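User: Fold this; tokens only.

Assistant: Input:
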Amino acid sequence: MPYPYNKIDQAGIDYIRSVTAPERVKVGAEILPEYHHDEMPEYGVYPPDLYVEAVNTQEVSAVMKYGNDHNIPVVVRGAGTGLAGGSTCKYGGIMLSIMRMNRIFPVDRKNQTITCEPGALLLDVQAAAAAEGLFYPPDPGEKTATIGGNVITNAGGMKAVRYGLTRDFVRCMEAVLPDGSIVHFSSNVVKNTTGYDVKDLVIGSEGTLCILTQVTLKLLPAPKCSCTLVLPFPTLEDCADMVPKVLDLPFTPTAIEFLERELLDIVKRALNKPFPVQEGGAVLIVMYDASSREELDGACAAACEAALAAGAIDCFIADTPERSGSVWGVRGGILEGMKGDSVAQEECDVVVPRSEIARYVKEAKRIGLSHGVRVEPCGHAGDGNIHTELLRDPGMTDEEWKSATHACLTELYALSKELGGQLSGEHGIGNGRIDFLEDFLGSRMIDLFKSIKLAFDPNLVLNPGKVIEFNR
């Protein structure tokens, strides 16, 4: 076994500088503390021994090969917006940043694709597509995340109901394997049954199998018009019961989200962002995209009629960019709002069958109350992915918080499993959820995961200790 790993010495530092550039290499105390953790410090704060910014595939290959040959772990870092502790140097070693690899190449209109490097930001890729009248649909909440991070975690977001996940838009990839080899997964073709579909295995592998260096993404024609409905209901259970009714309509929604009034009040209090609809104990937010105004009007009318028949207090139509922005701006501010309204946060990212959303949320709040922790569930009602935030209030000691959150998470994950759900809907396993994985998958599947990891990374040097842990 490679553990314990070697520490990089002066000869190694000099080599990394020689294959990149001295000004792009930082060592020890020169490395900024922000690179010791991702967006969730609760899942680990681990300082790298060396930080290097690569600018091309050849540099990535050289750094990775050095780490592999010298038993030094390498962890790839994008924008650091992950929420599972997946891009941290758990065993020290080299942090390899791809943020300078951010080129976006011209849109290929004939194939309706766009090619970019992993450090390109999601919002910039979306803008490049929109400039050509095209549309890149995956829309996770953090728009300043990198495309590489989105691909390697198979990011979802609010529009997954209609358009699917990042995986559904990846045509092909260039990547570096742990031994430094440069490989290509598939090509810019619409379908491919040439052997095993390794591309789809790599997507969502959380930086444990290879390093993405270039990706080609499928684009769609941009929708001509869009509208957001806000449907207030007396209770969350009423909101949840409305979800299958929306999905039964002959119009496919782009997004379906639920928010309880308590959470809307938090965003207003912490960020001074009032929600435009004050009615209801909970609201269902439904978005439709369409190719014509007639189609859009038909979808909205059908949804409003069904909602009123199901007990909605009213139907509010946000049919201008300003009105829609006031709704989605509050939805997008939830994480920051909760940060501002609490001392610390933990997160549970389960996904359950849509029919079990209301039961899960009700039980989640009961579990939090039983351990003295504020629990605020919100999320993607259209696909059952519920972000369950645990909030630390002033007065809790570190030990009380640690004990209470572990007890809550244990019960929340057990509840998800009982309801037929899964451990993570879109944030991944990383380091934060690794202890709960075997309970969901079973020992045989864990063995299979380990075999896959060893097939790509026999020396266990690429992002070790994430998803699957060998070094216990």
